[in-house]
Predict the 3D structure of the following.
Amino acid sequence: MSAIVFDKRGQQAWITLNRPQAKNMINGEMFLDLADAWQEVREDDDIRVAVLTAAGDEDFCCGGDLAEVIPLWTGAKQPQTQAEERLLADPLITDKIMLKAPPLYKPVIAAINGRALGGGTELLQATDIRIAAEHAQFSLPEPKVGVVPGAGSMVRLARQLPWAHAMKILLGGELVGASEALIMGLVSEVVTQGELLARAEHYADNVCRQAPLALQAVKRTALETHTLPWADAFQFEMEQAAHVMMSKDAREGPRAFKEKREPQFRGE
C-alpha cells in the first residue's frame, strides 16, 4: 500500500496521506512520496489546485514516525533500501514536504479528517484554505518531549495567527478542538465528517473557475511580501499585477463578461 495516493482529477490534484493504520504518521516512504507529489503539482501546468487530506476517520496526521526516521538521521541505522538512501541523501526533504523550499504558489486546500498533531499541524500551515471535520484536533506537543516544532511552526504560526493564539499552541502543547481552531483562525471552516470532502471539492472547483496566473500572483505576493516594508511590498505587488495584466487570461476575462459567458482561462 502506497504511503500517498495521488489522484489527478482534471485540473485538481488530490493528495491523500495513506497510512491510517499508523495514524497517518510521516515515515520515510511518505517523506519521499509527498515531496514528489508537491513537485508534480508545481511542474504540471494542467494542475491548478491541490487538495490535501488523509485516509480514515480519526487521524489526519499524527506527526513523524520517529521510530523509523530518527535512527536513519542519527546514523543508528544504515539505509537498507533505495528509498532510505534517497531520504538520507536529501537534507532538504523536510523543507520540501512542508513547502518551505521551494514554495508552492498554486492554491492548496486541506480537508482535515481528524487529529493533526505535531508534524500534522505543521503541514497544515503550508496550506491556504483549511476545512476541518468537527472532531478534528490540533497540537504541537514537541516541547513536552524536549524538542521543538522546527518544520516551520516557530516561524509560520505567529505570522498566520494573532500572537496570543499562536503562543497558546506553541507553548501550551495542549489539544485544540476544531471549534476553537476556527475562532483562532487556524482553520477556515468546520463541517461534519460527512460534508468534509464535498466542501473541499466545492472550494477546489471554485479555484478552477478563476484565472490561474492571477491566483498564483495573489499567493506569491502574500507570501513574499509578508515581512517586507510597505514600499517594497507595494512595489512587488505592482510588478505581479503588471505581469498578470499582460496575460491572455486578463483579456479573456473582460471579453467573457461582455459576451455574458463563462471565461475560458488557460493560464497564458
Remarks:
- DSSP finds twelve helices and ten strands in the chain.
- The radius of gyration is 19 Å.
